[in-house]
Amino acid sequence: MAEGLRAWAQYLALVGAVWVCSQSAQAVTVLDDRQQKVQIAQAPQRIVSLLPSLTETVCALNQCDKLVGLDRYSNWPESVKSVPRVGGGLDPNIESIVALKPDLVLAAGSTRGADRLQALGLNVLRLEPRNHADALRVWRTVAQALHVPTADSDRVWQGIQAGVQAAVQSLSPVARQQRVYFEVSPAPYGASESSFMGETLSRMGVGNILPASMGPFPQVNPEWVVQARPDVIMAGDSSRASMLQRPGWSRLPAMQGQRLCVFKQGDSDMLVRAGPRMAEGAQLMADCLNRAAAQTDIGEKR
Amino acid sequence: MLLTLGLSVVLLGTAAGSQGWQAWWSVGADAVSHQIVWDIRLPRSLGAWLGGALLGLAGAVAQGLFRNPLADPYLLGSASGASLGVGVYLSLWGGSAWAMNAWLGLGLTGAAFVGAVLAVVLTLLLARGVQQTLRLLLAGVVVGVVLGAVTSLISLLQPKVLQAMQGFMLGSTAFVSWSACATMAAVLALCLALAWVFARVLDALSLGEATAQSLGVPLPQARMALVGVISLATGAAVAHIGLVAFVGLAAPHLVRSLVRCTHAWRLLLSALMGGALLVLADVVARVLLAPQELPVGVLTAVLGGGYLLWRVYRDADSGVRS
Asked: Are A49 and A74 in contact (CB under 8 A)?
């Protein structure tokens, strides 16, 4: 009799466990950037991502092996380089994507390609992280959509935030006093306080010569930069050559020695993508600021 | 003959794409192949034909109406106006979810139409009528540049629109759906009917304005209607396939160099020719870099521009006016 009861208890425990498991595989509904509800019945197994920061988010959530198609700009982590390419975010190859039979397509906010894929019956989740708040929201939404347990995704996110905090702490007090001009492209477009990297700089407590009121990526007049006299200039590789030719720039203190930080293409990608590599990006900027501050110190001691 | 050519190229279009011919053979067996051929390749090939036909018709009407062999939806500024209309529409309603449905397509066409009408009217005002060829073309170019700049300004101020607008600037048939085909087909039917009715006016106009008037042609009304046809056709094409250059210019030219006929036939043949040309260009754009795709607008700009340059060069050489 007791034997029978124990068997029953075991059976019930097993059923309970199965029930709990099946709960985690239940359909989830998430809101995308257009405030549309997207229902995801079970954990997606074939994902197409059309935005590099979303690709990186999927991989940081440890779901890299679910990616079956990517846009041509997704280049991190190394393992995604072998994933088939399906055009760019603006000109996705519709029939290649359909042929991959994805059960989830991650795409940027408002593109005709995403509209068309949705009309063809694919499950399209539109997300476009532009700043720190977006990054957290997108992180949570993607984690939910991929059926990653909240506890796990929150733990990874806290790790990323701890990394950002460590970068902030690593700044010397002198480095914190500086004002920065961050150039995103040689037109020149700058990154203001309201851009993603601008927000990272604000978290470090350093100044930005471009206020948030100018919009995230204002086109700046080179004269404005000369007048604002930033202490540090950060720029991509493509900007370096044209910077030297701008009138008055060669005499800017920030153009001397270590106070001009030129980032390689891979590093620039990391800095501008509002995704899970924000801690590495913050550390990159912090190192630059510390080097620049050290040089100023030497200069003053002389 | 052009119709058969157009049809066969559309059929060819269903077979060309990044997934190759295989999709065509397994269309009955495999749901995905079925979707690729039926819901992606067929509407986009048909859409390319319809868009090309609209542009060819608009070009033929413009060349007849302005008695100018270089008139084209682009050179008159109406394409820039249409894309400005699209930009304004997207910046006002593009981001919201409700605009996602079929109304978006119709609204886009409407906005592009309004923009195209405004641009053509502006060009005609600046050129003070259609008498002087050079002035008309200059005015068209100026209007095109100014409206293009306004469109750029709008997309710069609203980063959300920027992406969507860039999609339009490229000129691509990749995103054409069945509902877009339906809209374009309806507009094409309407424009062809209107153009057919007013084709006699164009015949009369080719003898000169004074002669046309003495023949009892109601010129002001006819002009209004024909400008409407140009704008509507351009607007519908731009709203669905974006900016595709030179089809409107090359199609009537080719027709004229092949056959001599009255305007009624010339308009119809130009539409058929434009359709066949654009599908052909689209198929080439799809297979040239396969499995990657080239936006067809880039290809037509290169090919059409080259054709035009060759024509201008040859005409200047032999002193023959087309």
From this structure: yes
> Least CA distance to A110: which residue of chain B?
B164
As annotated, the residues of chain A forming the CATH 3.40.50.1980 domain(s) are: 24-148, 166-301
Q: Considering Cα of B293, then B297, then B299, then B302, what sign does the dihedral take?
A: negative
Measured between beta carbons, the chain A residues lying within 8 angstroms of B18 are 93, 95-96, 99
Q: How far is B174 from chain A (nearest CA, A)?
A: 7
**Is the CB of residue A98 less than 8 Å away from at least one CB of chain B?**
yes
Chain B closest-CA separation from residue A125 CA (Å): 13
Which two tokens mark A191? 């990154």
CATH topology of domain A24-148: Rossmann fold (3.40.50)
Cβ separation B292–A87 shorter than 8 A: yes
Hey, are the CB atoms on B175 and A94 less than 8 Å from each other?
Answer: yes
Question: In angstroms, what separates the C-alpha of A218 from chain B's closest C-alpha?
Answer: 9
Question: Could you report the per-residue pLDDT of B88-121, keeping only the tens digit for each?
Answer: 887 777 655 444 455 666 777 788 888 888 898 8
Which residues, including other chains, have CB under 8 Å from residue B221's CB and lie 6 or more apart? none
> Would you call B167 and A111 a contact, using CB atoms and an 8 Å cutoff?
yes
> What is the maximal distance between C-alpha atoms in chain A?
95
- Look at residue A227 and tell me whether its pLDDT is greater than 80: yes
CB–CB of B44/B176 below 8 Å? yes
Distance CA B65, CA B77 (A): 15
Burial class (CB in 10 A: 0-12, 13-18, 19+), B151: buried
SS3 state of residue A256: coil
Q: Do B291 and A115 touch (CB under 8 A)?
A: no
Helix boundaries (H) for B16-41: 22-25, 31-35
State the pLDDT at residue A6.
60
Q: How confident is the model at residue B201 (pLDDT cuts 50, 70, 90)?
A: confident
- What span, in angstroms and rounded, lies between the C-alpha atoms of B213 and A124? 59
Answer yes or no: CATH 1.20.59.20 is held by domain B2-318.
no
Positive or negative, the CA dihedral A264, A265, A267, A272 is positive
Whether domain A166-301 has CATH 3.40.50.1980: the reply is: yes
The model's pTM? 0.81
pLDDT in tens, A131-174: 999 999 999 999 999 999 999 999 999 999 999 999 999 999 99
Query: How near does any CA of chain A get to the CA of B95, in Å?
Result: 7
- Helices B263-288 and B247-258: crossing angle, nearest 10°? 120
